[in-house]
Amino acid sequence: MGKHLITAKPGVLFAMRYPNDIGYVWNTIALSRDFAASHLIAEARCFIAHPELTPNPAYSPQNLQPVALDCYSKKAVDLESLERFIQVHNIRVIVFMSALPSTLDMGLFRRLGVRTINTENDSFDPAKRDSLLLHALKFCMRRVLKRQIHAYHLANAESQKDFLLRYALIPPNRVRVIYDGINCERYSPGGRQVACAQTGLDPERCWVISVSQARPEKRIDRMIRIARRVIDARPKANIGFVYVGASNSPIFSEWQALAAELKLGDRFLFAGAQNDLVPFYRAANLMAHTSELESFGLSIVEAMACGLPVVASAAAGPQETISHGQTGILVDLQDDDAFANAILHYLDNEALRERHGIMARERALALFNIERQAVEMAELISGLLHP
C-alpha cells in the first residue's frame, strides 16, 4: 500500500458544503472547480466531495469524480472517512470554501501531508474590529507561529484581501486575489419574449430583478419598500419587481408579509429558488441589489453578463464589480431615496439602460470570466502538487 501511494498520481479534492442537488450559485462554484480540474488532468486525479450524493444533481461535473464525503465535519466517523479517502487516493491538496482553519482539523492535514486552499466566499463586515488582546493572540498564532492558516486563502476581491490581511491577520504570502467568475457563454443576452414565456413574467411590464439568498443582510425588505416608492413615483408606468431566492428561510415569509402590507400585489413577485436563472435575467430590464454585506456578488456579475445594468448598495464587492456610471449605479448603503431615484433614472431612459447593459457585459467578459478564474486556481494547485 505504501509503495502504491508514493507512485500513484496525486489527488486533488474539491470540498463542497452542500448535497449535490442544491443548485443556485453553488452551480457556478462547482463549475469553477470543474474547469480548474480540466487544467489538472495530466498531473492529478480530481474529485468533488459533497456531504450527500443524490440521484438528481444540480450540476454534473465533466472533469471531477463525485464522492460522498463531509469534509467540514469534525465528527470522529467523518474524520475517519476523510482520512481513509486521503490515504487511498493520495490526496495532496484539498480546496475548501468559506472554511476557517479553526473549524477544521488542521492537525490531521499536517500529519497526512495535505495542503489546503480556502476560497473565501462569505461576506464580511469591513468595520469589524477585535480587542487588543484578541488581536495580539491572532497575530502570534497566524503571523508568528504560522498556525490556523491555509496554504492559500483565495480572496474574491481586493477588498476581501484587505480584510484578510487587516482583520484576520493572514500572512501576506498566503493571500491571493482571484476574482470569482461566471460562465459568460451561458449567462448572455437572449430573446426577452421567450424568456418571459419561460418565467411567466409579463413581457409588457418593465421588470426589476433581485437575486440573492434569503438572509437578513440581503435586505430584500428594503427592496420591497423601494419598490413601493418607485411605483408610486410613476403611477402610470407598467413597472414590476421580482425576487428570485430560496423560500425555505424564516425571513422569506416576513418579506412576503411586508409586500402584502404595502399592497404591492403582482407588482412584486416572489419566484422562489431557481436552478436556472438565465431566463429570469433575460426577461428583466434592470437588476437591483440591496445587500449591505457582499464580498463579491455572483448574481450581480451574472446579470451584467446577461446585459443588465445594476443598481446596488455600495457594499465592498459591488464597488469592484460595478463601474459606477458606466455599468450601473452605486448608492450609499442607507439611502433609499437615492436607490429609488437610480432605478427611476434607468427606467426613464431606455437608451441609457441598453448602453450601460452592453458595457456591463463587456466588463463581465473582460474581468469575470470563469475560464480565467479556473486557470488561476489550477496554477496555484499545481504549485502545491509540485513544491
TrEMBL record:
Q: Provide the Glycosyl transferase family domain boundaries.
A: 198-362
CDD domains from the xrefs?
GT4_PimA-like (cd03801)
| The keyword Transferase appears for this protein | yes
The coiled-coil segments of this chain are none
- Keyword Transferase among record annotations: yes
Superkingdom of origin:
Bacteria
One Pfam match, given by its short name, reads: Glycos_transf_1
Kindly give the SUPFAM superfamilies that the UniProt entry links to this protein. UDP-Glycosyltransferase/glycogen phosphorylase (SSF53756)
Task: Give the UniProt keywords, A-Z.
Answer: Glycosyltransferase, Transferase
Q: Name one GO molecular function term.
A: glycosyltransferase activity
Protein known as = Glycosyltransferase involved in cell wall biosynthesis
The organism named in the record is Paucimonas lemoignei (Pseudomonas lemoignei)
